[in-house]
Structures are given as structure tokens and as C-alpha cells.
Design brief:
Structural class: alpha/beta
Number of helices: 6
Number of strands: 10
Oligomer: single chain
Radius of gyration: 22 Å
Strand order of the largest sheet: 2-1-6-5-8
Distance between the termini: 40 Å
Helix content: 25-40%
Shape: elongated
Largest sheet: 5 strands, parallel
Strand content: 15-25%
């Protein structure tokens, strides 16, 4: 999987991309991240990437020329998606990450900034994605979240692939509670069923915990699901 990130702040990604499972996955070349600064594709001596908005208004707008030039400079793969990170896009979710991980070999991520991006950049874009219903200072944080969410689904990133099957959102439910040693911490005890060694009972307890937790914390996830067995 190749990620090409069009960003005015490539240094933002250096430490996160070298840390934890994501860093290990990149070291093993499970995925590659290529950071591209559109300032390198400007043609004026000031390397100007933004300008005032036509029609007036507050804030500056990213110019189309450097972004087009940056994207067009890339080596492209047949199965690619050009994603604009914007609050107006579809909200990131686990199903989106799975779709991108399975369906594409190259994701080009365009990080917005300032008041917005010239609308003509839409002629490059094949998908718009948002981190949520809020506004950040730029698209770098959403881009990093998307990279993280997709890379961890690629074969070889997570040591025990089966663990991905039981996470929050994989079955439409939130994850069940997890416990480790000590079995009694400050009077809070691990549920007896988890100490029983009865795997059938443990599985049933975990499933019921998923249902209860989802109902109390994210009822929107199951209000239309008729397949739950209680």
C-alpha cells in the first residue's frame, strides 16, 4: 500500500510514522508513506501556495496549481483513490478503512489548510473524507488517522490477525471489557466467569457485555439491528 500525502507540513508526520505498530509496519515495507510538499511545485520566487478568495471573505484559500502539480508528479498505480481531507466529507469509520485496505494499492491524501482549497481541486479528487463534525487547523491529523486505521488492517501489521475480528465496530458492536493481572485491584475484582476456564461461558459473557455496552454508550449502532440474540 502506497500513501502519498500532499501536505504543507511534512514534519508533522515524522514522529508518528516512526512509532509503534505503524512504524514497524513501515519498516517492514507493508506500506510506504511518501510526503509531498506543494510548496516544492510553485513557480514564483516566494513559493506562494495561497491567495485571497474571489468575492471577498475572511481567510486565505489554497491555490490549485501547486496541488495539481504535486499530484501529477506522482507515479500512479491502477487501483488508486485521491482523497481530500475535509469536514464536508464522509465520516471515517471502520468499514471505510476496510474498504480502502482491500480495494486500493495507492491512496493520495490531500491535506487542506487555511479557509479552504480552490474548488477546482475537485477535478482531482475521487473521495472526500472527514474525521468528524468539527474543524481542525489542517488535514494532517485526519490524514494520519486514516493512514493508521488502514495500515493496521494490512496483513502483517498486527501480530495476531484474529484479534482484529473482535474489536469495536467489527460486528456492529462495541468491544467487550478486558482485564489482566492482578485479579483483585483495590477491591475491584475480575469477573469470576473470566477465571473459570469455561470458554463457552466466557464467549457468551463477552457477547452479552458487547450488547449491553453498545446499548448504553452507542445505541445508534444497534437500534436498527434485528439480528442480535440476547
Amino acid at each position: 500500500m502506497l500513501f502519498d500525502v500532499i501536505t504543507l507540513f511534512p514534519d508533522f508526520f515524522r514522529t508518528p510514522l516512526s512509532s509503534g505498530l505503524l512504524g514497524k509496519a513501515l519498516d517492514k515495507e507493508i506500506a510506504k508513506v511518501n510526503l509531498v510538499n506543494p510548496r516544492d511545485y510553485t513557480t514564483d520566487k516566494y513559493h506562494k501556495v495561497d491567495d485571497e478568495s474571489y468575492g471577498g471573505g475572511v481567510g486565505m484559500v489554497l491555490k490549485p496549481e501547486p496541488i495539481f502539480a504535486a499530484v501529477e508528479s506522482l507515479t500512479t498505480k491502477p487501483r488508486r483513490e485521491v482523497i481530500l481531507l475535509t469536514p464536508q466529507g464522509e465520516t471515517m469509520c471502520q468499514q471505510l478503512f476496510k474498504q480502502l485496505a482491500i480495494g486500493y494499492d495507492q491512496l493520495i491524501l490531500i491535506c487542506g489548510h487555511y479557509e479552504g482549497i480552490d474548488e477546482r481541486v475537485q477535478y482531482l479528487v475521487t473521495r472526500e473524507v472527514s474525521l468528524g463534525d468539527f474543524v481542525l487547523t489542517g488535514g494532517e491529523i485526519p490524514a494520519l488517522a486514516l493512514i493508521n486505521g488502514v495500515v493496521r488492517l494490512l496483513p502483517g501489521t498486527v501480530g495476531k490477525a484474529d484479534s482484529l475480528k473482535y474489536e469495536s465496530f467489527e460486528s456492529g458492536l462495541l468491544d467487550y471489557p478486558h482485564y489482566t493481572r492482578p485479579s483483585n485491584f483495590r477491591g475491584w475484582k475480575v469477573p469470576e466467569v473470566l477465571l473459570s476456564g469455561n470458554h463457552a461461558k466466557i464467549a457468551e459473557w463477552r457477547y452479552q457485555q458487547q450488547i449491553q455496552r453498545t446499548k448504553s454508550r452507542r445505541p445508534d449502532l444497534i437500534k436498527n439491528d434485528d439480528n442480535l440474540i440476547e
